[in-house]
Amino acid sequence: MPNLSTKLKELNTIENLSLGNSLIHRLHPVSKLVVTFLLITAVISLDRYVFWHVLLYFSYIFICASVAGVSYSFLFKRSVLALPFCLFAGVSNVIFEQDTAFFAGGVAVSYGVLSFVTLLLKTLLSTSAVILLSATTPMPKMSGALIRLKVPSVLVTQLFMTYRYLCIIANEAHSMYNAYMLRSGGKKGISILHTGSFLGQLLIRSFKRAERVVLAMKCRGYNGEISTEHPEGFKTSDILYTFTFCAIIILLRVWAFYVKG
Amino acid sequence: MHMADALVSPAVGGVMLAASAGALAYSAKQVKKSDLSESKLPIMGIMGAFIFAAQMINFTIPATGSSGHIGGGMLLAAVLGPFASLFAIAAVLIIQCLLFADGGLLALGCNIFNMGVVPCLLVYPLVYKPIVKAMNKKTITIASVLSTVVALQLGAFLVVAETSASKITALPFGTFVALMQPIHLAIGLVEGFVTALVLCFIHKARPEILNDATSPVNIKSVRKVLAVLAALTLVVGGGLSLYASEYPDGLEWSILNVTGSEELEPEGKADVYDTFSAAQESTAFMPDYDYKSKDVGSPLSGTTVAGITGAVIVFVLSLFTGIIIKKCKV
């Protein structure tokens, strides 16, 4: 099944990338989370028409992706997923905002086109930043960072278990799908009338597996708390990275504010 | 329906993050309170993984030549109950955001609210649960279709509201709504039908999974607490209020020292102030906690009557609110 196997491949790729050993990989997950959050906040707070300011922030993506060994094409191919709805919102801007902003070599560029391009770039940038974060931070380390940020343990446990069992349940679904298709007599997909029993079987199997897992965990001393990987303390490189990039992001944002004013 | 970061402003994103965080914190308390919280946590995690896999399974929609997949919010709520399912959905959305770039980081609050809080904490107790009081194929089908349609309509409307409030698109609000709602109505009908099929299958094969979805809160001890609070309120409002200090409170004292009078008068144009103070004067039946007219020949002082009346009004209002909550409670 294209969707399921594609998603499993994507998950595999990100997991392999996150196990790298570059400077960015060795940074503290909280530092990377803070910088990513600040970067996205700064970018989406920019005005609707200032695409050149958005372009400046791409330098963070290019520098960190190069250092981490993540290819630009991988980043942008993944970012394309977020585009459809933004394109729809952006195209409506082109239709509704037709006043001319400026002339570029004899061609009138409307405010609508400016806001469309800005929206597109903002989407690409914010999505790339998140993909870069997950491509340089393994999920167990991310869970440890969330605990450090005082996120409730119920949610962190939930994240941990979901991530752990994602592949197992997805592979089970894949086997069930293959078995269905081999018996379907050349059909193109699962018939809607069969979806009830298909998903129902998968749900019951997942539920029963979950009950067995709980018993197995209790036999091994599970008491309601799952221990996740606790990150080490902050190093000088983490503090330097956080302060440098936060300062650059804030300065660029303040400059954009004054230039507009 | 996953919103990207570029579709929300920091203000809207921040507010929705706070709202979702509040809902998750409240749900965490409810999950911890239930007796099975230890066993429930791993089950919630694995059901989250199930929903993730289920979202990747496409089925063909007859007569359209297209295919679709379920969202799973209502399905999960029917199986796990409202609070546990919210966690499962939130975990799935966070993983989709981080690992698959499906939905933005800042827009996580919006996504968790639209696709988690709305179906699990709003639609499930108000629409699904009352219909399936008697669990059979018919009630499950009606409840699934209706609740999925309502959840998707509300979710789609919230997406439009959040995008419009962020001033991202020049599309007029009405046009945006008119474009989004019918599409999601069609999606909701299909998903509701599929959810009904799945739940009917489970009801036939393993009914105990659907029956264990919720646990009621013990209200016997709450009645005792209410009685004590009511008695205390009457004593304080009726009796102790007579000994209330006549000195200015902290704010009035500060204003007195700065400006020379205990209350501030508006400067310049005060149209808004005049409108609202006129409205307040007409509705206040006991201004300044005393009788409106000074000729009332009652042995009880105005403050005592104001205290008791206020307490009774608050009691009645909160009782009605509690009855409404109880009627809507899971």
Secondary structure layout plus pairing:
The complex is a heterodimer of chains A (261) and B (330).
Chain A: H1 2-18, H2 23-26, H3 29-44, H4 51-68, H5 72-79, H6 83-96, E1 100-104, E2 107-110, H7 111-136, H8 139-148, H9 153-182, E3 190-191, H10 192-219, H11 236-260
Antiparallel strand pairs in A: 1-2
Helix pairs in contact in A: 1-7, 3-7, 3-11, 4-7, 4-11, 5-7, 6-7, 8-9
Chain B: H1 10-33, H2 37-55, E1 59-61, E2 66-68, H3 73-80, H4 82-100, H5 108-131, H6 137-165, H7 173-205, H8 207-211, H9 220-239, H10 250-259, H11 271-283, H12 302-328
Offer a few descriptive terms.
heterodimer, A: 261 residues, mainly alpha, 11 helices, 3 strands, 75% helix, flat, B: 330 residues, two-stranded antiparallel sheet, 2 strands, globular
User: Helix/strand-derived class of chain A?
Assistant: mainly alpha
Helix segment tally of chain B = 12
* Helix and strand element order of chain B: HHEEHHHHHHHHHH
Rg of Cα set of chain A: 23 Å
> Which range best describes the helical content of chain B: under 10%, 10-25%, 25-40%, 40-55%, 55-70% or over 70%?
over 70%
Low-confidence region ranges of chain B: 215-222
Given as residue ranges, the uncertain stretches of chain A (5+ residues, pLDDT < 50) are none
The percent of residues in helical segments of chain A reads over 70%
Specify the overall morphology of chain B. globular
Q: What class would the helix/strand composition of chain B place it in?
A: mainly alpha
Which value, in Å, is the CA radius of gyration of chain B? 26 Å
Mean pLDDT of chain A: 84
Q: Which series of helices and strands of chain A comes N to C?
A: HHHHHHEEHHHEHH
**What is the quaternary state of this protein?**
heterodimer
Largest sheet of chain A: 2 strands, antiparallel
Number of strands of chain B: 2
Question: Number of helix segments of chain A?
Answer: 11
- N-to-C CA distance of chain A: 53 Å
